[in-house]
Amino acid sequence: MQFLKILFWCLLAFIAAVFTIANWATVPIRLWGGLIADVNLPMLLLVTFLIGFLPTLLYNLAMRWRLRQRLATAERTILDLRAAQAVPPVAYPTPSYPTPSYTEEPAIAPTIPPAAAPTAVPPGVA
Q1: In the chain, which residues have pLDDT < 50?
Q2: Shortest CA distance to 40 belongs to which of 21, 12, 16?
Q3: How far apart, in Å, are the Cα atoms of 109 and each of 33, 93, 101, 118?
Q4: Cβ atoms of residues 36 and 28 within 8 Å
Q5: 38 with 27: CB under 8 angstroms?
Q6: What is the dihedral of CA 50, 56, 62, 67, to 10 degrees?
Q7: Which of 27, 31, 85, 100 satisfies CB 3.0 to 4.6 Å to 35 for a cystine?
Q8: How is residue 102 annotated by DSSP?
Q9: Which structural domain range is residue 72 located in?
Q10: Global pTM value
């Protein structure tokens, strides 16, 4: 994938170089006071591109910074709320009365044979 990115940027640079060489002409720009500035066409196109691109880039960077700040604030708020809602573990008191000790084994309850155990059969199956 990295190779394709490098190939794309090299191709784009080559196209820009060919465009610059093919359009190397001076363009007269009339300024105030009767001044005329002779500017190369590629430089003029670059300046006009940057005039449109830089405000958009600055707006995008400011928006991303603002959204990161809002996200960090929301994450801190969530952590604070979770910490506030966390219930501390309850310490159960130790019993002060003596616990009975069994010297004989408790009686084992008789098991029900499988045929006598009640079963639930869905309607329409039996």
Answers
A1: none
A2: 21
A3: 112, 33, 20, 18
A4: yes
A5: yes
A6: -140
A7: 31
A8: -
A9: 16-85
A10: 0.51
